[in-house]
Input
Amino acid sequence: MNKISVIIKREYITRVRKKSFIIMTILAPILMAAIIILPTALMMNQDGDFKKIAVIEDKSDLFKGVIKNTKDAEFVYLENTKIEDLKSSFESAGYYGVLYISPELVNTPNAIELISKKQPPIGLLQHIENSLEKEIERQKLLAFKIENLDEIMKTIDTNVSIQTINIDSSGVAKKTSTGIAMALAYILGFLMYMLVFIFGAQVMRGVIEEKTSRVVEVIISSVKPVQLMMGKIVGIALVGLTQFLIWIVLTGSIAGVLKSTMLSNVNLSEISQSAPQNMMASGDNQAAASEAVAQASVSPQLLEFSKMFDSAMNQPWLLIIVSFIFYFITGYLLYASVFAAIGSAVDNETETQQFMLPVTIPIILALMVAMGTMQNPESSISFWFSMIPLTSPIVMMARIPFGVPLWQIGVSMLLMLVTFAAFVWMAAKVYRTGILMYGKKTSWKEMWKWLRYSG
Output
């Protein structure tokens, strides 16, 4: 046991001191936070450039005054002006662009053009499209000669946003988000795939390097081959765990800073309480919601981001972290033992290609099923692949954000323990013979003989 601990210490210290390990450990959470925060920050800051847009209707005034001005854009309706006259000179006239509306727009949805020197922002296009769509719908309804149509349209104008709430066995309800669950399923499944594959491959390369340099012959004179293999596997596993735990601390710190800075002025409970009161007073759902947001001095983008943040915080993080550590350790030990056996059976990395395909197929298949799990986490394929030990580390981690019964997680973990123990036992028998075998091309048949060798 003392000899194994020496090997573990050597593998651990050697790898955590590498620059690549330090850089990836620090940069990964920061890059992940940037991916989440940057789009929201861009949406909040995109309104600084004010745009004046000329609107020209061709031989009609069907949509005159329909597109309302916003705080970022002004729409100037021009009369007796042809599009050809302004097409090349709108910028010198002080306009950001020219919006040309054909009267055929009622029947032809693409009979509208926005001419500009720069690519217009998506928010501006959505504002124009939504305004015209509502006006076209209103004009079509006018054909039915409905009285008080404008009041009816204003009353029925409603935006629906489904709030999902999960209730656990004890009756505690938590607000959740399907989008957050899908994002977590993707991140956890892909992260598990990367860690198991990358660290497992490191074990194989380490075994090949020691075998090629004949260092292993010196080490074997002091320790048993099985001790060497287990020391190397456990040492690299501790490196992976160290990296994962640092990621948890850094991610938690970034989330804390985010909550105390960007979201410090957002109080969802106050906004949700004020919205119904405004609705009762005004009778207009859309206006009430907007007024509640305005009273809270919060931009709609920041409010949406705050909802997503609160939904993310309501995920079962303790179960996710404990499950991730368990499946990483057992899944890594399972695959790393196979990689170590392959590394001991070959003389160089090129010869590993013939053995890699059967090993990588289950991992890639698990990743593909995990991607499908985001769409249907309760499917029979997702269930069975989360039970099969070769695929369960990736697929089960993709299912947990959607809620998995604890008995299913327990059965899956039990199968993992039994299977990884069997794989380590078989890999040790192959490693013991293969690590001192030189100059002979190994095949699956040869490795089967080593496995059955009892000496």
In short: The first strand starts at residue 51 and ends at 57. The mean pLDDT is 79.
